[in-house]
């Protein structure tokens, strides 16, 4: 099996609302795949269909090579699901929560206990195993959620917004955890996120979804490199000649879109890292003193903007308003 997930032309309508509008993508086995989109893009709807919790209005999908519409029970055995809302019982301990899931999957006695111990250790929860889940921090609760999705050793794990609501420290711990799982447990992970940074950090491949449609796909690096290069910003010293600096930068090979604002000169180049020393040398030859140089890689926000004409943050905020008004 080369593809762990194949979604083909998924459409989902809720009355007048088209949540998915012909979404197709494939996920290679053993990779971390990101579904990135602002609120309301259709991410949770996609997860619900792929995990057999909802059926598409039209379109088909396979998970672990199994048709989600034809054989939902087989799909459920092959997957782990961590939904956006926590599935833990707050009045039970971490260990009890995991044991309950093990029992639901038909595991008993020593087999159940050893799998639970293994997962507690994997997520650093051994010391907290006998505390009630409601006493866990947000980050610990989310780890317990993920551990619960892994009890039956699924081959495909679905994580719907695994770090939403976590503080930055807990978020980066969760990132490390997810990256480790992908490496050591030979899992395919599909995660959704509305954090650009998270998709950038974690996903081998990602699709950017907007209004139920795919707007771009590729590795984070591929998507950003489509934007043709890095921005280099040179801040000149107070006594430098801006005109001389501009002439020097224009004379360099490979600089484009040169703009000047105040004492800053901004240009786009193919490779920021190699352009910086060349720019400094050119300015030095022209006797232009420099205060600071920064290189900004294109961010996924620039990718989203290019394909949709609006910034990611504004799309996210707009949808939150729509949903609040309902
Ligand atoms: N059960 C439902 N009934 C009606 N509309 C829904 C339902 N679930 C989702 N939607 C709508 O479908 C769109 C996509 O929602 P969702 O998949 O939850 O987006 P995301 O997870 O990307 O934020 C939104 O406009 C949302 O309001
Ligand atoms: Mg969602």
UniProtKB/TrEMBL annotation:
Membrane topology recorded in Swiss-Prot or TrEMBL: Peripheral membrane protein
Location in the cell: Cell membrane
Pfam family, one: DrrA1-3_C
Span of domain ABC transporter: 5-236
Keywords: Antibiotic resistance, ATP-binding, Cell membrane, Membrane, Nucleotide-binding, Translocase, Transport
Gene Ontology cellular-component annotations: plasma membrane
One GO BP: doxorubicin transport
Gene Ontology MF terms in the entry: ATP binding; ATP hydrolysis activity
InterPro entries given in the database record: AAA+_ATPase, ABC_transporter-like_ATP-bd, ABC_transporter-like_CS, DrrA, DrrA1/2-like_C, P-loop_NTPase
Entry-linked PANTHER family: ABC TRANSPORTER, LINEARMYCIN RESISTANCE ATP-BINDING PROTEIN LNRL
Family (UniProt): Belongs to the ABC transporter superfamily. Drug exporter-1 (DrugE1) (TC 3.A.1.105) family.
Protein name: ABC-2 type transport system ATP-binding protein
Organism this protein belongs to: Actinophytocola oryzae
